[in-house]
Design a protein that fits this description.
- It is a single chain.
- With 384 residues, the chain is mainly alpha-helical.
- The chain folds into three domains: 60 residues; 202 residues, no CATH class; 66 residues, no CATH class.
- 41% of the residues lie in helices and 5% in strands.
- The chain contains 15 helices and eight strands.
- It has a two-stranded antiparallel ribbon.
- Strand 3 and strand 4 form a beta hairpin.
């Protein structure tokens, strides 16, 4: 068994794996590639990809040399969001209509169902890496007692930091005094990103009116509105004047710099930020109304992805996906509450509920939410 590293700082909550690797290397005054080769026996890991598709040997070696569980290390990558917020990290040709065309604001989403044939496409994951730097909040990094990069900065679902009200910029925790000046974000954008931050850190979103929605639903609605904003439209489309007005509200012409197809994940960082500004303006009435009325795709999509989604809802998940949800539920009470409700959807009996609760407790998941089921043990005195 490999000996433990004498110095191994522990992962921070919500930290990205690439950030933790940098902090481990920094403890030995090394670069990440040098540290990985000397301490882990891994040759030049691609630092830009470890947050998305880390190699199994890298995770195993880190676990052995630091004592941090392999599951905890995987939870520092985008795999932590699968399948709770993102269906898969494996590109599939028919995942686009499943994820992006389920909901709409301006029109029936059935009209937008179309394949994206690019094999690389995954929701929220873009090819650009801002010149090799992490995208992050300058003010967060400056105020950190121990600087670290947040995992949720690695996806394209936000363009600002709701805490500080500034735009995300190319920045790495490894830098010392090279940070540019902060740039203030529009209030509408910071408010939208604040809801998204709830989705990706708490697993649920509390809308201004008090309604609580599932984080996965919020992200799919958001990505659906992005598709409505980005996709090319004919002059006679009924929704075009509304979308043109949203672009004009942020001071830009219709579909500014989106190119022919306007696939969000293929846009540059600044173009994605502009799209989110438009979405923030366009979604204001929907958010104030608690996401009602929301147009939804009523007919099923007969694809392999939809069949897999049904299997996931029936808990026929891959072991890694189960481990990801278990890790989240242990640390996040909101996820634990949602998981218990999901497992006990239309329970057969109070005994079934009790057995489910025992299973959750055996996995180290707190049993928190009361269930309105006859004969179910009363847990109303516990946090809800």
């Amino acid at each position: 068994m490999a000996t433990r590293l004498p110095i191994h700082p522990q992962p921070m909550p919500l930290e990205a794996l690439s950030s933790w690797l940098w902090r481990l290397a920094d403890a030995y005054d090394m670069g990440v590639s040098e540290f990985a080769e000397a301490a882990l026996g891994i040759n030049r890991p691609d630092i830009e990809l470890v947050d998305f598709w880390p190699s199994a040997p890298l995770i195993q070696k880190l676990a052995e040399r630091t004592g941090v569980a392999a599951g905890r290390i995987r939870a520092m990558t985008m795999a932590a969001y699968v399948p709770y917020l993102v269906d898969s990290l494996a590109p599939q040709g028919d995942i686009f209509p499943i994820y992006c065309c389920q909901f709409g604001v301006f029109e029936n989403p059935t009209l937008r169902v179309r394949p994206v044939r690019a094999a690389w496409w995954l929701p929220w994951i873009s090819g650009d890496t801002a010149g090799g730097k992490m995208i992050g909040c300058i003010d967060c990094l400056r105020s950190d007692r121990q600087r670290f990069g947040r995992l949720y900065w690695r996806a394209g679902w936000m363009a600002s930091c709701p805490k500080h009200g500034v735009l995300l910029q190319a920045a790495s925790p490894a830098e010392q005094s090279e940070y540019p000046g902060s740039r203030e974000a529009a209030a509408e954008l910071a408010a939208l990103d604040g809801l998204t931050l709830q989705a990706v850190t708490k697993g649920r979103v509390q809308l201004p009116g008090g309604r609580i929605v599932h984080g996965g639903l919020w992200l799919r609605v958001l990505r659906g509105v992005i598709d409505e904003i980005c996709r090319p439209r004919r002059m006679k489309d009924a929704a075009r004047p509304i979308i043109e007005a949203a672009w004009a509200a942020i001071g830009l012409p219709y579909r500014h710099a989106l190119g022919r197809w306007g696939i969000y994940e293929k846009l540059g960082r600044l173009e994605r930020a502009n799209v989110l500004k438009v979405v923030a303006v366009a979604m204001q009435p929907l958010i104030r109304a608690g996401l009602e009325p929301l147009k939804a795709l009523m007919r099923p999509l007969p694809t392999e992805v939809s069949r897999n989604a049904v299997l996931s809802r029936n808990f026929g998940m891959m072991p890694l996906q189960i481990e990801n949800i278990t890790l989240l539920a242990r640390e996040n009470h909101d996820v634990a509450i949602d998981l218990r409700r999901m497992l006990n959807h239309q329970p057969r009996s109070a005994r079934f509920v009790a057995q489910t609760d025992e299973t959750l407790k055996s996995l180290g998941i707190p049993v928190l939410a009361p269930l309105l089921v006859a004969g179910t043990p009363d847990r109303t005195g516990q946090p809800y």
